[in-house]
Amino acid sequence: MGISNLIVFRCGLFLVLLIFCSLAGSESEVVTIDVHQAKNLVDSGYRYLDVRTLEEYKKGHVSAEKIINIPYMFNTLEGRVKNPEFLKEVSSLCKEGDPLVVGCQTGVRSLYATADLLTIGFKNVSNMGGGYLAWVGNGLLASGMEEKAEANHGHRVDSCPFRCGREANKRVLTAAALFNIKEGNCPSGV
After folding, report:
1. 39-63 per-position pLDDT tens digit
2. Which of 32, 90, 96, 99 has the fewest CB atoms within 10 Å, i.e. the most exposed one?
3. For this structure, is 11 an active site residue?
């Protein structure tokens, strides 16, 4: 009887602590916004914090005036590991009150990064749901794609987004269009 009462007491204490912690953390819930809301915030002066790896960032990133790339995770031989300096690096470049939109490739790493930032006192931080793939999938402009176009498509960016041999506006070439181009093949069949 004494052991069962102890177990019940410990379970009850655990539940009380769990409820207390969830109520205490409710003020710092992660706010997830869609890519169009993210674009509006970035256009209005928010910083965009890209938490993807440097390799992912170099392949293409959200087109923003104020953009920072600080990886939340690193690729290693053992798999992905959390960047132990992430919070320190962000804190060295941003203040707790700075408005930030946090994004990654699909919205998962940025969700964890946003939660971590809120935990250390950042106040105005939003997670971009769907990440970079949703950004380009919605036809929003991306930077760093010109090199990818030349490497994978074999044409100059300013002369061939979908109209080989014709002059074209470089800004029309979005990352979404580039993802549809198979390596070495032109969409017009050339």
Report:
1. 999 999 999 999 999 999 999 999 9
2. 96
3. no
